[in-house]
Amino acid sequence: MRHALRLSVSFLIGFTLSEYFHIAKGEWIVLTILFVLQPSYSETRRRLFQRTVGTLAGVIIGVLIIQLFSFSGQIVLMLASSYLFLIWMKRRYSISVIYVTIFVLCAFNIIANKGVDVMAPRLIDTIIGAIISFVVVRFLWPEWQYKKLPNLLSEAILKNTTYFKAILEEYKKPTTDDLEYRIARREAHRADNALVTAWQNMQLDPQKQQQLKKVAFKLTYLNHALLSYVSALGAHRNQNQQEKLSHQVFEIHILKALEESHHWLITQSNNKIENIEDTLEKISNQLLNTNKEITQIQYILLFNIAEVTLQILEQAKLFKLTSVATKPLK
């Protein structure tokens, strides 16, 4: 909803400026806004840089290259540029902008022999559209990355819990059809990737909006470690039956602790967090003593899962991460 409103306001501003000042090829301002303006500030800033640099490079390269091609050569160049634009669109936007700029230059040169003439308006319109996009996303209902962290962390814990539960089911009743396990694994990795992306995008937010930069890094690292230990536990699910875990009490308690951790991240109940931490500490101590007697890799992984979960909760509580949570618009 926020993005839709920002996009509509940006279109209105761009169109008004184009009509009021009679800007040449003013429709390119609106087109630039459409491609540059993204749902978040960090994504818009990255796309703005790519669009501006790509357009500038496309203008310079296009003007130099077009002098070397005849009419037929320009048609071939135009077709090749349109194809390469589509190829690079999702891979690297800045390169795709270079090709589409060359395409526009060739098209106008073929139609009216004015390809070089429209390059100046294109560059100017691109800069105007980029500035409008930047100003709107910066000041109109900005959505900073640190506000997403609580929801992303709770989602990551939830997906890790589901993944862990699916692994335990595989241990209990091994099946050839492990579709649920693979789905849970994919969702857990997606949630982990979303947390990593939020931390990376936070580097592009204004300095004063990077309030949880350090805790975001720590939580990203810890969640990735948790997912790695859970995945390693799942990798051993197809071992011989006699080599599998002989006790179910540890797994059940860890699963319950993970579920309660997710619930705490949502409800922010201070009393409950103490109970979860006590449970995890007891499990860790019991597993540590067990590891001295039994060297099964599963026990070691369960110990690591319990320890990392405890560290995640300590970080979330220490920095009061949930106090900055904001509910997303629906």
TrEMBL record:
<dbReference type="Pfam" id="PF13515">
    <property type="entry name" value="FUSC_2"/>
</dbReference>
<keyword id="KW-0472">Membrane</keyword>
<keyword id="KW-0175">Coiled coil</keyword>
<protein>
    <submittedName>
        <fullName>FUSC family protein</fullName>
    </submittedName>
</protein>
<feature type="transmembrane region" description="Helical">
    <location>
        <begin position="57"/>
        <end position="86"/>
    </location>
</feature>
<feature type="coiled-coil region">
    <location>
        <begin position="266"/>
        <end position="293"/>
    </location>
</feature>
<comment type="similarity">
    <text>Belongs to the YccS/YhfK family.</text>
</comment>
<feature type="transmembrane region" description="Helical">
    <location>
        <begin position="123"/>
        <end position="141"/>
    </location>
</feature>
<keyword id="KW-1003">Cell membrane</keyword>
<keyword id="KW-0812">Transmembrane</keyword>
<feature type="transmembrane region" description="Helical">
    <location>
        <begin position="93"/>
        <end position="111"/>
    </location>
</feature>
<dbReference type="InterPro" id="IPR049453">
    <property type="entry name" value="Memb_transporter_dom"/>
</dbReference>
<keyword id="KW-1133">Transmembrane helix</keyword>
<feature type="transmembrane region" description="Helical">
    <location>
        <begin position="12"/>
        <end position="37"/>
    </location>
</feature>
<feature type="domain" description="Integral membrane bound transporter">
    <location>
        <begin position="15"/>
        <end position="136"/>
    </location>
</feature>
